[in-house]
Amino acid sequence: MQFSMILLHLSGTVMLLLWAVRMVRTGVERAGGPALRDVLRRARSGRLQSAAAGTALAVLLQSSTAVAVLASGFAASGIIPVSVGLAILLGADLGSALVVKLLSFDLSWLVPLLILIGGVLFLKFEARSVRQAGRILIGIAFVLLSLHMIGEATAPMRQSTLLPVMISYLRGDFLTAFAAAALFTWLIHSSVAAMLLFVTLAAQGVVPIDVGLSLVLGANLGGGFIAFWLTRGQQAVEARRIPLGNILFRATAALAALFALQLVPFPVDLFGPTEGRQLVNLHLVFNLALVVVCLPFTGAMERLVALLVTDAPETKAAAADGPVAARASALDRTVMRTPSLALASATRELLRMGEVVELMLRPVMDFFEAGTPERIRQVQKLDDEVNRAHTDIKLYLAEVNRGTMTPAEARRGIELTDFAISLERAGDIVAKNLLVLAQETVAKKLRFSRDGWNELVGLHDRVMANMQLALNVLVSSDLDSARQLVVEKERMRKLERLSHDRHLRRLQSGTPETIETSDIHLEAVRALKEINSLLASVAYPLLSESGDLLESRLAQGGRAQEKMAHLPA
């Protein structure tokens, strides 16, 4: 019974640790997503610079896996070659080890302060960046709190009669300890969390140093498998080659170190006064050595994984036909005599239509920088699927409307039809405007000025965030989200005007890149603003019904006025 309670306590604290690490990562991604992706876009000038960029991003995101997924996406879009992606991942693994080093210090005294400041920022402010800063601080506090709780949960294990038997077995079978750590790290999908758990167990005297060394090496291998697993379904082979190359680097180094430790006595005392500190420092040294040894061979590894991961004939054929296969329609004709079910069916199909538009819009900025005609044409073909969905939804709802419906159901049918029209128009703008501009930019080898590029990336990321918000409103009919969507429309209008004025000032100053890309820049900004306005249309019926919308503007007073007052200048 006592062992069961210890296991329950430990499982709960590990889950808190996983959730806290994820909370910090999502906060950083939401607060600085454009800046983080821009770092990767520019990490192409050399191996050292790429590794340094990967290290910085992993420290900020507290996850080498998140960096690996980002790098794989850029490789799939042709922004970075596989060798650069491998260098970024080597640096990211080092950054992840630095995170473990920082979090291993006794910072429990910070927990109340971080929760207090983070809670105030998240609950009392409306600006997105401020709220995400609060999320990050609360997440760090929960990481520190979970580590303290892990120590408390494992303290009784030192008196357990079962523990010496398990430790004795692992001491005699280092391969099992290594494999178990790799499997555990992959299962929880966080090398940082796994390492912090192992370090805490060692600091509590639960895990001896010789077993801890095998666990650390296993965690390093398991961390590489996470990114490989998450990208296994990617159609672009470049996206799968980067995690595979990283695994080959890490597996070779980890297994070599594991067997070397069995043959040669290792001076662990040089790495710290306590077993927990020794494991942290050894983890850091291992990843630093991996960067130094493997970085010169990223080109050779790129050639090796190109031989191991090739385009299958059926994959090439699918790529020629389009980036995604047509999915079955969600429109259920068997429920057309039941309007409530038919409207729910149409909403599901409309949600799928919105996801296809999102899939079209997401890679646009990557295509502006390094798109290929083939990839751009593949995404343009998605517009055919959007058009089909638009037609099917309109005809389906028109047939449903010919039946017996309540006024509310009839009104909902019209709202869904209107939003289908908006999404179809948004798809046209992406396919016939933004992607055409991207083709022109690449064909003429044009480059935006740094300020102009940052403006475009910022606007694109804002539209992508509002796309998610609009689809949430479609499904949930949440009033707060609807209000935020209309507020975002006004923000976008101001940002478009600001970008226009700044662009004209750059033209006046004679910036060569600005002169070359002037028409493209202005058209792209205008297109992003129009797409954002079309997305915001999903909120109007909901706000009009609630009385928050008067003559296409948010009603003044109440919560709407309070939210507008917090808009940043």
Short description:
With 569 residues, the chain is mainly alpha-helical. It is 80% helix and 1% strand. It has helices at 2-42, 47-61, 64-76, 82-103, 111-124, 128-154, 162-172, 174-188, 191-203, 209-230, 237-263, 275-294, 298-308, 313-321, 339-361, 364-370, 373-401, 407-443, 450-476, 479-509, 512-516, 518-536, 540-546, 558-565; strands at 549-550, 553-554.
Describe the structure.
The chain is mostly helical and 569 residues long. It has 24 helices and 2 strands. It has a two-stranded antiparallel ribbon with strand order 1-2. Helix 4 packs across helix 13, helix 17 runs antiparallel to helix 18 (407-443) and helix 20 runs antiparallel to helix 22. It is globular. The protein starts with a helix and ends with a helix.
User: What is the N-to-C succession of helices and strands?
Assistant: HHHHHHHHHHHHHHHHHHHHHHHEEH
Outline, from the CA principal axes? globular
Portion in helices: over 70%
Distance between the termini: 59 Å
Overall number of strands: 2
- Average per-residue pLDDT, rounded, comes to 83
**Secondary-structure content class:** mainly alpha
- The number of distinct helices, counting runs of at least 4 residues, comes to 24
Radius of gyration using CA atoms only:
27 Å
